[in-house]
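INFO batch 0412 | record 1 of 1 | parsing
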Amino acid sequence: MGGIGSKLREARLKWQLTLREVEERSSELAQQWENSAYKISASWLDRVERENRGLSATKLIVLAVIYGL
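INFO prediction complete | emitting tokens
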């Protein structure tokens, strides 16, 4: 059974997004919402996906918006 990281990777690949594209979209959201905490780096997301690390509610909300969840 996969953890949150594998589920996030599955959602990203479903939308055919690269890690860099997610980073770019999160930066756009951070600007729109005027909160730099919404920025997600490609390297951080890669670690979360590979190592099933936990993530904050803030980051989860941003990824849910990007992935249309």
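INFO post-check: The first helix runs from residue 4 to 14.
INFO record closed
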